What we know:
The protein is of the alpha+beta class. It has 7 helices and 7 strands.
Amino acid sequence: MKRVLVIALIFCTGFCLLASAADTSALAAMAALPAPTDLDSQFSYVYGLLVIQSILQSYPDLDIAYWGKGIYDALNGEMFFTTAQMQQILTDYQMMTLEANAEAQRKLAQENLKLAEDFLKINKTQQGVYETASGLQYQILREGTGEKPGPNSNVRVDYELTLLDGSVIDSSYNRKVPSDFNLNAVITGFSEGLQLMKVGSKFRFFIHPKLGYGESGSSAIEPNTLLIFEVELLAINN
C-alpha cells in the first residue's frame, strides 16, 4: 500500500505543477520545447523524465490512455470517481498486485525445487560425491589435518557461493578477506557441512533448498534455490 500512496503523491505533485498553466494547451507547448540549456531547466527535465521512467518500470501494465485522461481531468477539475472510490481502487489494485506476486513466487518456488532435486538426483551418482542423512551432498577437494568445529563454533573460512547457472552470489575470495561465522547462526546445510571438515580442508557443498533458504529465499536468492558452496576452513576461532 505504501508504494501505491507514493505513486499517488507523485501524481498529485505533478498535477499541482501542471495546473499552474492557464489551460491544457500548455501540454502541447511542452511537447514542442527545445532541449534545455540552463541548469535549472535541465534538472527539471531530468527529474520529470526519471520520475516517469520509474513509474512505468514499476507499473508496466499502466494504461497510458487512461493515465493521460487522469492528468487531463486533474487539470480541468474533473473526476470519474469520488475521493473514497479512488482510495478503494488504490487498495484493490495493491491487493491484486500482491496476490499476483505471491502466485508468481509459488510457481517459481515449484520450478526451482524441481530443478534442485533433478540435479541432486544425478549429482549424488557422480564419483567423489557423498550424501549425508539430511540430504546434504559434498565433495572433498582437499582434506585437512586440523580439528573439526562443533555446532556452536565460530569459524574462519574462505568461500564462494554460486547457483546452478554458475552465477556467483557471494565470494570472500573476491573481497580478498576471509569471513567469520557462528555455525549456529547460518543456514543448516552450511553449518552441517563445515562440521564435516577439518581445519585446512576445502570442500564443495551442494545444498538442497530445505537446508538453505527454503521457500522464502532471500534478497539475492530466489525461493527453493539450490546453493553450491566452495569452502576452505581456515581456523576455528572458538
